[in-house]
Amino acid sequence: MHVQPEHRLARLSPRQSACLHLAAQGMTSQQIGERLGISFRTVDQYIGEACERLGVKSRIHAVARALSLGILTLGPP
């Protein structure tokens, strides 16, 4: 099995990072969308893309992986 290097996984767009940051605070896609001025479907798309880049299958795992890689912190955005 080929494992991608962690530095490649760390490439999230600013919007993907923002959505994950707010998801880490417990916000729903609807709440994130309202905060960022986008639809909840767009939020789900950004989070799905982040999951793919991080090699995980859920938003919870994406948050955990991003935290463990140091590309997401739980402080203020």
State the main characteristics:
disordered N terminus; Arc Repressor Mutant, subunit A; about 80 residues; mainly alpha; 5 helices
Report on the architecture of this protein:
The protein has 77 residues and is an all-alpha fold. The protein has one domain: Winged helix-like DNA-binding domain superfamily/Winged helix DNA-binding domain (Arc Repressor Mutant, subunit A), CATH 1.10.10. The protein is 64% helix and 0% strand. The chain has five helices and no strands. Helix 2 (14-24) crosses helix 4 (40-54), helix 2 (14-24) packs across helix 5 and helix 3 crosses helix 4 (40-54). The radius of gyration is 12 Å and the shape is globular. The termini are far apart. Mean pLDDT is 87; it is low at 1-5.
Give a short synopsis of this structure.
By secondary structure, the chain is mainly α.
State the domain count: 1
- State the fourth-level CATH superfamily: Winged helix-like DNA-binding domain superfamily/Winged helix DNA-binding domain
| Ends apart, CA distance between termini | 36 Å
Class from helix and strand fractions: mainly alpha
Question: Could you name the CATH topology?
Answer: Arc Repressor Mutant, subunit A
Rounded to an integer, what's the Rg over CA atoms? Answer: 12 Å
Largest beta-sheet characterization: none
Structure summary, number of beta strands: 0
Instruction: Give the rounded overall mean pLDDT.
Output: 87
Query: Could you give the order of the helices and strands?
Result: HHHHH
Low-confidence stretches: 1-5
| Helical coverage, percent range | 55-70%
For the record, the CATH class is: Mainly Alpha
Q: Which architecture per CATH?
A: Orthogonal Bundle
